[in-house]
Amino acid sequence: MTTKHEQPTVFELSSTGRAGFRFPQPDVPSAELDPALERSDLPMPELSELDVVRHFTLLSELNYAVDLGFYPLGSCTMKYNPKICERTARMPGFSQLHPAQPIETLQGALLLVYEMQDILQKVSGFTAGSLTPAAGAQGEFCGVKMIAAYHADRKNDRRKVMLIPDSAHGTNPASSVMSGFTVKPVPTDARGNIDLDGLRALCNEDLAGIMITNPNTLGLFDENIDQVTGLIHQAGGLVYGDGANMNALLGVVKPAELGFDVLHFNLHKTFATPHGGGGPGAGAVVCTDTLAPFLPGPLAAVLEPATEELPPLYGWKMPEKSIGRVGAFSGHFAVIVRAYTYCLMQGADGMRRIAEHAALNANYLMHALKNAYPLPYDRTCMHEFVLDAKWEDAPGVRALDVAKRLMDYKFHPPTNYFPLIVHEALMIEPTETESKQTLDAFIEAMLAIAREAHEQPELLHGAPFTTPFGRMDEVKAAKDLKLTA
Amino acid sequence: MFIPHSPAEREEMLASIGVKSIEDLFEAVPKAQRFPRLDLLPGLTEMETAAQLKEMAEANFSLEDASCFLGAGAYRHYIPAAIDNLISRGEFYTAYTPYQPEISQGTLQAIFEYQSLIARLTGMDVSNASHYDGATSCAEAGILAYHQYRGKRKRILVSAGLHPHYQAVMRTYLQDFDGMRIDVPETVSLDEINPRRLAEMTDDSTAMVVVQYPDFFGQVHDFTELAAAVHAKGALFCVCVNPIALGLLKTPGEMGADVVVGEGQPLGIPPAMGGPYLGLFATRKELARKMSGRIVGETVDNRGQKGYVLTLTAREQHIRREKATSNICSNQGLNALAAAIYLSLLGKEGLRSVARLCYDKAHYAAAKIGSIPGFKVLNSGTFFHEFVVVCPEPVVAFNEHLLHHSILGGYDLSSDWPSLGNAMLVAVTEMNSKEDIDNFCHVLAGDDHDHEA
Fold this sequence. Notes:
heterodimer, B: alpha/beta, Aspartate Aminotransferase, domain 1, 14 helices
């Protein structure tokens, strides 16, 4: 008999009359309330504080996390999240600020946002930026929407086509459609670059722009990037940069200098803020002077310059032709504090060291694995690479099986089945914070699994065996939809 | 610090790759632009960074040192100690999206419980795993309405009582998208914000009617008849809620809402100058497959254990790409966890108590302020958390004066709502003691001048 790991829900743990928290007795008289407006029933659980603490602690033990082990998830940049960033974000002078406080009472916080905008501009080579986007996908939506606003402002309503390479992340087409564009795919060539002939054929008067992830989702830096941005600009389009992979470029190259017009950042990838089990992260969007008037707002700005006696007065400003607000307030400030803390510690030299060691770790893994796993694009990678888990002599084994088996070796699986152009894709991003010892242990596990794939494929099909839970019935979940307890 | 490589290890790794130096790995980058100078300061140690951040934090006026009457979409509530302790566990906050359910049941079950708690709180059948904040939840509700009618109904009728920033975000997402229109009735007084007027304005081109409950001005209306009128025109009815109010008030579900959205920040999440917060999103079960965002469902594993997975992923951008219901590919995981812990800790009794305290204290404050000569409370019906006070002079002058007494006065409505005059939106929660409220009134009334130098 195996041990049962399933946990009761808070509703199953509930016991009538129990309470985990008590409020003080009212110090004002009770006010009248029309009984017709009162709710009839409040079906909340009844638990003690210990019930709650033990329940969620037990749940936490069922999770894998960066603090527990290696997380080589491609395109997710699961680097270590420094503890000091948690402490600074929780300082009451940051966490206990109301967004509508008078700006005179927020000068330290506004300065921080202003400086973070500046850091992102300096790293990327752009001259303007906004930290209001809540996440990468929203930063991307903003960037695309700014391109739409730019063309509309020039009364050019023909430009409705957004080009997206076939290796792109799924948010790219989704964001484009939300901004009113029609999407056309651009093929990838044999070296993993954007296919220039394919691109030329799509550059015409209908072109609004292109969305480029560089390095792309294969982990490859586009060798023709100058020509790509040149072709788009000649045709009157703009170039959007998906900054999901900025960890590879810090101090290596500034996207603005390659001809990009607008770029988003994921602070939770590149600048080490925690992923939180799926969020909250933070997006940011930076751009050229031409696009600056269209940025989402509000931005932190200097409202009154410094005088001899006084420092500058910081406040909020809405760009002149802004695409508008994308959130209730001005972005994920507590996440921005963490990213800012991280950036201060890195400084100019630290940024480049990040990208260099991210690439070193990725290439080290790639070289160690490429003889055991097919490597569809065999050239120096940046911060990540993609293997194709498809062997002629082990036809039944799929990327999913390799991924699941890795859990038995105590590793989180890589991203699989993405990018879509590699059929059995295993996308591996080690990040710079992993040591050679960890990488060597991972290599050993991957090589062992490649052997198992040939000799004992049933081990892979049935895996994982040593995790608290086995493979889930996902079909049942979608068919017998049960979304609440 | 965060990069572990020793020089010897680095050399060994470069040798095994077959390159001489780390720079050789970047040959694909155009040489002219490779390795630019970054105009940043040198990196700091942890001790130096901590000191600098502390100085910046202390340059702000923290609510911990204030008596706060600001609300308008962000509320100061007590956050029980257990919440931060639990969400600070590395197993939760350094985990990724639970795409591998075998080793992510902690996150998955917590979200499943969050969904269940939100559904019960709002009186709806299902909830998603959350959106970014209340404003984007409203926009996503509008997108749902667009898809529900396949773009054939182009109008979204939005109450003037919806938070002005939420209206703005709905416009950013939807205005002019395939001819969509966000229609907010022109309104000059609070009385004009009422369900009857919206019912009259709902027509056959309306895809959705969106109201706020309590509204931006704290007003509480029963929307049961409005919901019926909206349904009679074949449209969807969406209610944007403050979750604390639902500890006491009739649920949108009971009133006939199809979609419930709202700002979950009051559920144990610090105000943090506006974010990150928590976008609530719940629907009737018929609309479950039309919801955007992540959703967790119950299932079983191959060992017969009950477990949870991300489900209905076929709606999402990584599968559907340009045909996806939204581009969202995250949720506010850790904040949803905080909300689930908050609701579990407070439970039936605590949630009712906190709502009742907010209700009673707001009414005590309103009566007290209304009795100060020259001040008038505009709310005539039921209100929760907040109410509008017309002041004898511009709000900014009062707020400046209050600030000298370490009091953050209410939200100044004069720029968004000039028709209301010198109007201040005052918010009161369980954090405002009777003494705080009395002191606030005392300063507003100008009774403190005798004591000033």
